[in-house]
Structure formats: C-alpha cells, structure tokens
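Obj: model holo form, ligand = methionine sulfoxide.
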Amino acid sequence: MAEAFNEKIITGDKRDRYAIVAQEIAAVLEGEPNLVARMATVASMLAATFEDHFWTGFYLVDPDKPDELVVGPYQGTLGCLRIVFGRGVCGTAAATGETQIVEDVEAFPGHIACDARSKSEIVVPVRDRSGRLIAVLDIDSERPGAFDRADAEGLERILKQAFG
Ligand code: SME
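Output (holo structure tokens):
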C-alpha cells in the first residue's frame, strides 16, 4: 500500500486530491490504534500529495501543560518545539478552536517563522471522538495564498475521519 501510494502521481483539482488521499489514508490506518502512528501516516501522505507544501505536521496539546502545544509527527524542515496557546497561527487555532487560513504570513500578527520559505499557511484543530482538542495540523506553503476553503474542508474531513 505504501509503495503504491508513493509511486502514484496525484493530479487533478484540489478537491479531487483531498478525496483521493482521504480514501488512501483511511485504508492505511485501518486497524491501527496508535496515535503517533496515525499522525505520522497522515503527515506523510498529505505531504506527498501537494508539491508546494514544504512543512506538514502536528502540534499536540501537551498533557503536562494544557495551554501549550508541543511538536509531534511532521514532514519538513526543523519546526519550533513549543508554541503557547494564543501565539502565532498554531496557537491561535488552538485557542479559538477555529481553522486559520493565512494568505500572507507576514500580515498575520505574531506569526512564528520557522522557515523563511513560508508564504502562506493553514492550521486546522484536531479533536478526538469526544470533541476534545488534542492537536492542530499545520501546513506551510512556499506559494502566497495557497490555501482556501477547499483545503479547510478537505483537511477537516480527513482529520475527523482519522482522529474523531
Ligand atoms: N508558523 C507557525 C509555527 C510553526 S511552523 O511554521 C512549523 C505559527 O505561526 O504558528
């Protein structure tokens, strides 16, 4: 399954890409209960689907410091390790519980620049079955304005399917 996915060149419209990768993710995660394994798989498969996304990964709510995020499984260059709720795009998504679409990272107050290539970003809250916030998914693009409602809807659906 992993080889077949990695060899496949995913083409087509963004919504089609999310629909295809959602099915692939569901198939790979079938029967796997471990949270780290599930997050690593989602990060890897999403990163492989979009060429301009250079950072795709999770920040988890730290069980020891519930107002702090700590980095989890990701694909990309070195990310910062901890983000306090309310800081940057990730901290804003965690504090508000709302998906953040940032067309221009330089225009976002308090944006945390982990990699100078970042031009736009989306951060989506991740909830468990009971609705509790467990993490956020952060994706960074080298292209300005790379993310829109189609990304938010595609990602929200995948995260609900994988962790909800
Ligand atoms: N830009 C994010 C920080 C995390 S990294 O980009 C990997 C933010 O402002 O929350």
